[in-house]
Write a structure and sequence with these properties.
Layout: H1 2-19, H2 23-47, H3 51-68, H4 85-88, H5 90-113, H6 116-137
């Protein structure tokens, strides 16, 4: 039992080290983490009705997602936690990233104009888009 646990931990450690083999993998993982953390901040700003901060942060998130489009070079296929379907279904995956970017653009516009209904819809679209991609395009191991 201990031997299997040790082998499992060593394998996990080695696979974690292999993730860093391609610079785009590190960059996209950092971007995904920032998007996750800052989307939570965005939700807090919306709850607090802090529209200026919501608009600024939504614009920043929009830029992060636009940058993500460039962080999946073919040479990074098979590295990191992205499923091979990202590359095999690039049109669909890229379209989902574009939808996410558009959702943050809409949050930005809605917060700037005070359109709370549109803001709520766009924020829901952004967060559900994240969940959808995780289910389709992220490997668990």
């Amino acid at each position: 039992m201990k031997r299997n646990l040790c082998i499992g931990l060593i394998t996990l450690t080695l696979s974690s080290l292999a993730i860093a083999d391609h610079p785009a993998v590190e960059q996209r993982q950092a971007l995904f983490e920032q998007i996750d953390e800052e989307t939570e901040m965005l939700e807090a700003f919306v709850d607090e009705e802090n529209w200026p901060a919501t608009a600024v942060l939504a614009q920043k998130l929009e830029q992060y997602v636009a940058t993500l489009q460039t962080q999946f070079p073919p040479a990074s296929k098979g590295e990191g936690r992205s499923d091979d379907d990202v590359w095999e279904q690039w049109g669909e995956f890229s379209g989902k990233l574009t939808q996410l970017e558009t959702s943050y653009q809409t949050v930005h516009r809605a917060a700037s104009s005070g359109n709370l209904t549109l803001l709520a819809e766009a924020l829901e679209a952004a967060t559900s888009s994240c969940r959808s991609c995780h289910m389709s395009y992220r490997s668990l191991w």
